[in-house]
């Protein structure tokens, strides 16, 4: 009888536990992971603490994931949403592959780690604050967790904790003491991982959402090579740095600051890389990374790095600073096919033999109006792909990349696959088109720079484009007015523009005809003078 009772109690306990787990999973899947949801969470916190500054609200949100203290102020749903939205994790399973948690889809089409965003807004992108202050903040957060009955890894001896080297692919951007890791520290840690050398390139992994209208799951393209340095994490840390300046210099609510940055038209967020460079101008990335790792090593979380020498640390700081600058800051932001809603390629794409030596510049002509938002540019991309596949019978959209006037490049056939952009030359170069009709107007200067100064140079550094590349307009190779008169005049000013033999002959012919006409006019005038 007692055994039966024990069995019944055990089954009931299992049932309750299973119900809780299923409920938690359902809660996770019902949260729409976009910027609107995140801003609503911020507004909820602002309504609970109406007198708080934007900085205080950001700190409260960071702490809301660490303690049940806020359950007295926020509803269970709000606390649950905070934990889902702000806890950045990379998880893996055989069924689902690599997924990134704690990231949201912004209206500009980019993905942002919300926790990294808040942390950078509060503390900045580097470790300018002293280590003791950071550790004091960690202690405060840890004590809150203890008061709520939770335990942290801070209570465990250093020797009992999992070494950093063993958790390379099972980590998140929040330390086990509860304090998020700064961008500078994360960059340094990435190159301190096993197998990293000074010749290792920074590899930033992006992914795809299960839905653009109601995103819930973000699937990474591949396993993260550098701990938590995904594109979403970098976007969040960079955005937070930019917005942190506004947070300290303006009296606006946090929700208003976020709305102005992401939701206004045109949004400022597509220019995050350029703005970040302007924000940190005059500050040395290398020094900040070195200092950040030193600070991290003084915490219990960094105990596994006690054997790292200062010389090695300086070398790592130099490598990670250079790679971040060249592979992220100086490269363009590219909206992948899965985000703008591309249909599958028809048939089997043909692999390019890189590096290629030619860049062909186009304009779309139709659509004729430059697009200035992600929604409009994505719609134009889908329209062009439908025209190329259905009307022209091509396998896919023809261009390699397309530049929108929203500040983003859009992936067409990309770096690896042969396009259908310049007849007879598709194997030799990349076709890059600007959305719009540029016969009588030009793309904005910063849009031109995205192609000229970022896409091409990034392609050279990545080995896709030959250092001795040349730029040509579509009309130099095919009988067409593309890329429009004014845009064609513009690209002739580019450093690697190449005048073709046909163009040279045409210019020579025009000069000869002009000379003949002037000579004839002079002769006619001379004859008239003689007659009188």
From TrEMBL:
Pfam families registered for this protein in UniProt: Amidase_2
Single Gene Ontology BP annotation: peptidoglycan catabolic process
Keyword Lipid metabolism applies: no
Keyword tags: Immunity, Membrane, Signal, Transmembrane, Transmembrane helix
Biased composition (Basic and acidic residues): 143-158
Gene behind this protein: PGLYRP2
Keyword Transmembrane part of the UniProt annotation: yes
Species annotation: Leptobrachium leishanense (Leishan spiny toad)
Annotated Polar residues bias: 159-173
SMART domains: Ami_2, PGRP
Protein name, per record: Peptidoglycan recognition protein 2
Family membership: Belongs to the N-acetylmuramoyl-L-alanine amidase 2 family.
């Amino acid at each position: 009888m007692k055994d039966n009772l024990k069995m019944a109690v055990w089954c009931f306990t299992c049932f309750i536990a299973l119900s809780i787990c299923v409920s938690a999973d359902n809660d996770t899947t019902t949260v729409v992971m976009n910027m609107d949801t995140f801003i609503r969470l911020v507004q909820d916190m602002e309504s609970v603490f109406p007198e708080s500054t934007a900085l205080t609200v950001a700190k409260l949100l960071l702490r809301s994931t660490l303690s049940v203290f806020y359950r007295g102020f926020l509803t269970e749903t709000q606390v649950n949403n905070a934990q889902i939205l702000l806890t950045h994790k990379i998880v893996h399973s055989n069924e689902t592959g690599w997924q990134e948690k704690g990231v949201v889809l912004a209206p500009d089409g980019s993905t942002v780690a919300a926790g990294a965003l808040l942390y950078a807004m509060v503390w900045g992108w580097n470790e300018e604050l002293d280590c003791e202050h950071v550790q004091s903040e960690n202690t405060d957060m840890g004590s809150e967790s203890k008061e709520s009955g939770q335990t942290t890894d801070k209570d465990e001896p250093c020797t009992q904790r999992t070494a950093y080297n063993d958790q390379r692919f099972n980590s998140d951007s929040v330390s086990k003491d509860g304090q998020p890791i700064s961008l500078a520290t994360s960059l340094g840690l990435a190159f301190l991982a096993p197998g990293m050398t000074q010749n290792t390139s920074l590899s930033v992994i992006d992914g795809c959402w299960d839905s653009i209208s109601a995103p819930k799951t973000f699937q990474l393209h591949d396993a993260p090579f550098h701990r938590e340095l995904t594109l979403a994490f970098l976007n969040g840390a960079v955005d937070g740095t930019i917005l942190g300046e506004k947070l300290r210099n303006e009296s606006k609510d946090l929700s208003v600051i976020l709305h102005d940055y992401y939701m206004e038209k045109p949004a400022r967020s597509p220019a995050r890389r350029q703005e970040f460079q302007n924000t940190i101008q005059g500050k040395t990335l290398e020094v900040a990374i070195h200092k950040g790792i030193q600070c991290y090593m003084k915490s219990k979380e960094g105990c596994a790095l006690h054997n790292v020498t200062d010389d090695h640390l300086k070398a790592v700081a130099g490598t990670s600073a250079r790679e971040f600058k060249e592979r992220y800051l100086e490269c363009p932001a590219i909206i992948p096919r899965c985000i703008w809603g591309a249909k599958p390629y028809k048939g089997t794409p043909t692999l390019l033999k890189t590096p290629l030596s030619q860049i062909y510049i186009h304009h779309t002509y139709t659509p004729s109006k430059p697009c200035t938002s992600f929604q409009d540019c994505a719609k134009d991309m889908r329209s062009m792909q439908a025209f190329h596949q259905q009307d022209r019978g091509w396998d896919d959209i023809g261009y390699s990349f397309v530049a929108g006037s929203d500040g983003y490049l859009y992936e067409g056939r990309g770096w690896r696959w042969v396009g259908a952009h310049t007849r007879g030359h598709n194997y030799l170069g990349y076709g890059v088109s600007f959305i719009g009709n540029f016969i009588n107007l030009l793309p904005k200067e910063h849009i031109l720079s995205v192609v000229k100064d970022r896409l091409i140079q990034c392609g050279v550094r990545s080995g896709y484009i030959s250092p001795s590349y040349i730029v040509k307009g579509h009309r130099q190779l095919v009988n067409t007015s593309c890329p429009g008169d004014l845009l064609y005049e513009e690209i002739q000013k580019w450093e690697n523009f190449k005048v073709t033999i046909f163009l040279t002959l045409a210019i020579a012919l025009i000069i000869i005809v002009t000379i003949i006409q002037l000579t004839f006019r002079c002769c006619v005038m001379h004859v008239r003078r003689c007659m009188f």
